[in-house]
Amino acid sequence: MNDTNKHIEDNVTYQNVGTISGGTLNDIKPEQRSNALRGAQLLAKALQAEGIDVLFGYPGGANLEIFDVLREFDIRCIRTEHEQGAVHAAQGYARVTGKAGVCLATSGPGATNLVTGIADANSDSTPIVAITGNVPSHLLGKNAFQEVDIVAITKPITKKNYLVDKVNEIPEVVREAFALATGNRPGPVLIDIPKDIQQHYPRDPEGNYTPPRIPAIIEQSHTTIGGMTENQLEAACDMISKSARPVIYAGGGIVSANCTDALLQLAEKLQCPITNTIMGHGISPPDHPLSLHILGMHGSKYANVAINEADLVLALGVRFDDRVTGNVDAFIPKGKIIHIDIDRNELNKNKSVTLPICADVKVALQQLIEQAQANDTTPWLNYLSQLRQQYPFTIPSHNKLSPQFAINLLSDITQGDAIISLGVGQHQMWAMQHYHSRQTHSFLSSSGFGTMGYGLPAALGAKIACPERMVIDIDGDGSLNMTIHELATCHRFGIGVKVVVINNQWLGMVRQWQDMIYDKHRSSSDLSDPTNIKGKDKSEIYPNFLKIAEGYGVRAERITTKEELASAYERMLANPDEPYLLDLIVEREENVYPMIPAGGTYKDIIMSDTR
Questions:
Q1: 447 and 509 within one domain
Q2: Which domain holds residue 273?
Q3: Catalytic: 29?
Q4: Residue-wise pLDDT tens digits, 101-138
Q5: Could you read off the pLDDT of 241-290 as tens digits, one per residue?
Q6: Residue 113 and residue 18 share a domain
Q7: How many domains is the chain built from?
Q8: Residue 91 and residue 127: Cα distance in Å, rounded?
Q9: Is 415 a catalytic residue?
């Protein structure tokens, strides 16, 4: 095995079990042939041992051996229309289950089509295992047909990746890959398997078949990261006891660690308000008196004021990304910061903090619940309560169909209990503000990487994982157009994803920035049909998503007024197992507010078009 990417966070080490790459069935003694498993079968059996019964993929010459044996091991493949759809579907599956999602691609362009999704999973700490076939071993490095060094390409965006060069390594590689993908800070792992390794059988120098161990056994190089040290806990508790204006700043690490209940318990004990990142959507109930909702560039004004005027910030499972901090030097200008994260590389990376702690946030929260003592925060909470009332997220009062109204109504009708998937753009920010998720693992967003086209394939992966739940992709017309072909996957496999298109005929966020920063030079952001004459009716909306959906066998309808919307939602949601597209023609030039300009501070926040 070519161990190409030994990451600092690896919690396991590979244990070598053989030296012979493999042979054909004719190389194996006749009495051993009936029970012999070749490489592709070993892979499928190893996946089965990890509890994998479904994966997402696309067949091609270099992975047909694997596709050929999946049925033998009761593994279902959801064949998407594009490999990017497969990796995003694996992400969606992982985000709602907490388990590793699996995607499978062929060599060359099949493998490189996974790269965007792998990078996305790396940015948002999503556990996936990407498996690629490659050309036979003797052709590696010779520019063979559809050959690419996918191991080298993905090295910077995976926790670890493997080029398997011996058949009997496969079970150990798979076992380690899943342990790494889901362990400590989750993330993507890639396994690249040349075609001859898929075809061959493990054998010893005499030709004897040597069955590998399944499930495989891997050595632990060190124990999983635990809680705070005694000194760290004492220091944290001392800072908390002296704080009159504390804020909890919580992110995706809380979701990954499944410790929302502990977070709320600590907040209530300390009477400390909570604000969260988009990756932490659903951490606190939207109507909880301590909830400050989303912070950052398009977050609430009261959350941004709170964190910047706090005297103590408990940063839990976050990375101080630029969309939250703005001008990082001016972010939290006077408050002390306790930063707890399982990835020590995040500590003091973007923001220097008072007390950096590498620990399992779930264990650390329990330690704080047991030992931390609150100061009186009543004046602070009263002040923030007034800000919440003064600066709520607003819905336009005009009678036209606005994106904010549409998303808020969907939240009310579903009672915040649906799984929401998102594309990237203005609709993503409006959904962040106006869809009130009541649980975690239910708001799927390409947050750190901002991948347009993420919404639909991630939604179908989520629906495969949770068929009993309502799954809705809230998408923009620009973002949806990048992966709309995955409607075919929904139809083919009966995946009941609902698609709500916030259709404004623009790359809306691009147009907003162009208007605000580039003197309204709207270069390449208009999505409408350039042959249309101004003033034509709504039937001229371009492209015609209704016809596209019809072509893929998916029911669809278009809504243009507020009055029509509630009944349209009822029709869309009537059958949770039926894919459905609802094209909402909204106000074309609605802008997303609040907005902190890039590189600005909370004092630069813009609340409306009139500033």
A1: yes
A2: 230-390
A3: no
A4: 999 999 999 999 999 999 999 999 999 999 999 999 99
A5: 999 999 999 999 999 999 999 999 999 999 999 999 999 999 999 999 99
A6: yes
A7: 3
A8: 7
A9: no
